[in-house]
Amino acid sequence: MNKILGLVICVGMVMVPFAGARADASFRGFRLGAKDIQATEKFYERVFGFKELERSSFVGLERVVLGFETRQNTTNPARNFRVILLQRTSDPTKDVLPHLILTIDDIAKAIADIQETGGSLVGKSHRESVGSVQLVSDPAGNYLELVYGPKS
Length: 152
Fold this sequence. Notes:
The chain is α/β, with parallel strands linked by helices. The protein has one domain (2-16, 29-148): 2,3-Dihydroxybiphenyl 1,2-Dioxygenase, domain 1 (Roll), CATH 3.10.180.10. The chain has three helices and eight strands.
C-alpha cells in the first residue's frame, strides 16, 4: 500500500505546476525505454508489484503496459498508475535527472530484489526531509529514487 502512497505523493508533486491548468488534465504514468523488455518487465513486477496489463507492438517495437489494476479503480485512483515500457535499440541512459520516485516499506527486500533482477544501486543512500533516499537503476539503465524510513 505504501508503494502506491509513494506514487500518489510523486504524482501530486508532479501535478502541482498544473494545479491552475486545465481541469480535464490528469496524470496517467510514465513511458520508459528498455533494450531487454522482458528483463525490465520482470524487474518492475518483482520489485514494485506491477502486473502486465497489455503487450503490443508500437511503430515496430515491443510495448508492454504495466500497472496495479486491470480496470479503472474509481475508489483509489493511484492504482490506475501505469509504467509503459517501449523497446529501444540500446540502453545509453546517463542522465539521472528524469526518474521515478517511489516510497518503499522494506528497503532491504527491495535492494535484494533489485539486484536479483538485474538492477543496481547508484551511489550511497542519503537523508532528506522525506526520509532516506537511495538511487537505483533498472536493468535498462532507467533511474528510480527509493524513499524509505522515517522523515527527518
